[in-house]
Write a structure and sequence with these properties.
Layout: H1 2-23, E1 60-64, E2 71-76, H2 80-97, H3 102-118, H4 120-131, H5 135-161, E3 164-166, E4 175-183, E5 186-190, H6 196-209, E6 213-217, H7 223-239, E7 247-250, H8 254-261, E8 266-270, H9 273-284, E9 290-293, E10 298-302, H10 308-320, E11 330-336, H11 340-352, E12 355-356, H12 374-387, E13 391-395, E14 397-398, E15 413-416, E16 433-439, H13 442-450, E17 454-455, E18 457-461, H14 465-473, E19 479-482, E20 499-500, E21 503-504, H15 509-514, E22 517-525, H16 547-559, H17 563-589
Parallel strand pairs: 5-6, 5-8, 6-7, 8-9, 10-11, 10-18, 11-16, 12-14, 15-16, 18-19
Antiparallel strand pairs: 1-2, 3-4, 4-22, 9-21, 13-15, 17-20
Helix pairs in contact: 2-8, 3-5, 3-7, 4-5, 4-7, 5-6, 6-7, 10-11, 16-17
Length: 590
């Protein structure tokens, strides 16, 4: 009894000490990052003219605000030799960083976290100006997700990168077996434009914390913000004594990306399935590992036993997430026939209250669409659906936009009478469109949801959690939310990724962190040098006449199903070893 009391006291003391340590403020230095060239102070600047995007790729990446078409500047489209030079610089720095302690790496994370929390408005404003999203959407998708990833790494990162001991099996009981997670070297990442802050920080945090260097090619649609955000990373690294050039951002087009793939030790890609296939082909030349997070056409299933008003609000947010820049957003809505009419009416009421406009000019629900000509593609998907019998039943409004930016906005649109013969239900829209289809049974909902070339995520809503879980378990996708939407990504201990045309491999979570590592299996003697592995006499060269008989008995002794058969085999093994030793000793005497 005294032993258990002592154990309880020690455990209680440990918890109290850990709690007290949490109350002690960490010695985290503040950093200053020059933002003078990106802050919009409201005064006209020399380069503030309205920009007309060119369809032709040049040696420059031109940047502009999608919401206003105001010109932001340009960055060089790097050539292959320039990319390789950047990678070589990072590789040199990585060799030093690979020897860094987890204490130093955690301090880097704390410096970042402190800066992010103190400069939320600046970070969100830059994301908003470069992609057209609202400040609220930037906070939700950029700030919160990144802070959550940092805090998870601070709490658990070291734990999942330490050697992991495994069982050694029956034949290797005298050995210890473990898995080591060592840095790969230089990780390359090619990221999309929809979350310019988080899409940059996400791979950088995992790569750097696991001891790697990293080169990130930011999207040509979000280079302006990416080239500022990397300053934050580089300044934080310098503050903890990391070598220069450990993290680099490069700008350019396809040629730049191809050069990066051929120069690094692993590639992470966030983008379209078409480009993902090209990256795989290029990566095959050097046989490097690839993680692909590609398109999505996530189903949003609503059963008849839900709170209609609540789920309708969640559904609209899921469809319109980030001004139609809905990475992991819902694009197909399946609603039970018994509540179909009431659900559609509630959605239409909400959507009619949604307004889109320049995010820096007022508090709008939606901002602009980032990519040039994307409105035309969205309209073509709607036209195809209308031609095949669909009907528009509601939409939002667009306000206060300048004449030059009209094509950068698309009003939220609700469509009914849709089916799977329409492109809108099969192709990724990446826009603020809500196609709503009815179903009669759980089996039909599952069949419809799985009828897609994509398999990223899903959301299932039901008054019965058991029912929702049962439906979700039968959907072929990588991410599932029960009675919620996109909550998975805020749980940074979980992996993120899909199947089919949504890609493969995972980032985030334990799996994503270890995916930045060389996974090495290590076996060593448990009681060295007292017990060492020796080759049994019957199978030493030259082998004995009974070598195969010995091997048969050894296998049965180790793995036989019946305990008596195993004991009998063990006796045979010992007998043969004894006889072999006697023969060897006899020959020596002769």
């Amino acid at each position: 009894m005294a032993f258990w009391w002592a154990l309880m006291v020690i455990a209680f003391a440990f918890v109290i000490c850990k709690f007290l340590l949490m109350l002690i403020p960490s010695n985290v230095p503040s950093i200053e990052v020059d933002a003078s060239d990106v802050v919009d102070d409201g005064h006209p600047k020399e380069n503030s003219f309205i920009y007309i995007p060119s369809r032709r790729q040049t040696d420059r990446v031109q940047c502009y605000e999608p919401a206003t078409m105001k010109y932001l500047g340009y960055f060089p489209a790097l050539k292959p030799d320039e990319v390789k030079e950047r990678v070589a610089q990072v590789r040199k720095s990585q060799k030093v960083w690979a020897k860094s302690s987890f204490k130093q790496r955690r301090q880097f994370l704390r410096v970042l976290l402190k800066y992010i929390i103190e400069h939320q408005e600046l970070i969100c404003e830059i994301s908003s100006r470069d992609t057209g999203k609202t400040m609220v959407d930037a906070s939700l998708g950029e700030i919160m997700t990144t802070c959550e990833k940092i805090t998870w790494l601070l709490s658990e990162g070291e734990k999942w990168l330490k050697p992991e001991y495994r069982s050694s099996g029956r034949s290797m009981l005298h050995k210890t077996s473990k898995v080591e997670f060592q840095p790969l070297g230089v990780v390359g990442a090619i990221v999309s434009w929809n979350y310019p802050f988080h899409n940059l920080f996400n791979p950088v945090l995992a790569a750097v914390f696991s001891g790697n260097g990293i080169v990130v090619k930011v999207s040509e649609h979000a280079s302006w913000s990416g080239c500022f955000y990397v300053r934050i990373l580089q300044t934080a690294l310098a503050a903890v004594g990391a070598p220069e050039n450990l993290v680099e951002v490069i700008t350019g087009f396809a040629e730049t990306g191809e050069a990066l793939v051929s120069s690094v030790d692993k590639i992470i890609f966030v983008g379209s399935p078409g480009v993902g296939r090209m990256i795989m082909r290029k990566a095959a030349d050097t046989l490097i590992p690839v993680t692909l997070e590609l398109g999505g056409k996530d189903p949003f299933i609503v059963c008849e036993d839900v709170d209609v008003a609540h789920v309708a609000q969640v559904a609209v947010r899921a469809a319109l997430q980030s001004s139609g820049q809905n990475c992991a957003g819902a694009e197909r809505f399946y609603v039970h026939k018994d509540i179909y009419a009431s659900f559609v009416a509630e959605v239409v009421k909400i959507v009619k209250s949604v307004t889109a406009g320049p995010p820096q000019s007022g508090k709008y629900d939606m901002g602009a669409i980032c990519m040039q000509d994307h409105s035309e593609r969205l309209q073509s998907l709607i036209n195809d659906a209308l031609d095949k019998g669909a009907e528009i039943v509601g939409g939002g409004s667009v306000r206060d936009i300048s004449e030059g930016a009209v094509d950068q906005y698309f009003p939220p649109t609700v469509i009914v009478n849709v089916n799977h013969q329409m492109k809108l239900m099969q192709e990724e829209a990446f826009g603020p469109i809500m196609p709503i289809m009815k179903f009669s049974s759980d089996e039909e909902a599952i069949m419809l949801a799985n009828d897609s070339k994509y398999g990223l995520g899903c959301a299932v809503f039901s008054g019965s959690q058991k029912r929702a879980k049962n439906i979700a378990s039968q959907l072929h996708c990588g991410v599932a939310a029960i009675n919620d939407f996109a909550s998975n990504y805020m749980c940074q201990s979980l992996p993120f990724g899909g199947v089919k045309d949504s890609g493969f491999g995972r980032f985030a979570g334990i799996e994503g962190l270890r995916a930045c590592c060389l996974v090495k299996s290590v076996v060593e003697d448990r009681w060295w040098p007292l017990i060492k592995t020796k080759i049994p006499k019957p199978i030493q060269y030259p082998v004995a006449e009974n070598c195969f008989e010995f091997q048969q008995s050894l296998v049965e002794a180790l793995y036989g199903v019946n305990v008596w058969d195993r004991l009998r085999a063990l006796v045979n093994v010992l007998k043969m070893l004894t006889e072999q030793n006697s023969t060897v000793n006899s020959k020596r005497r002769d």
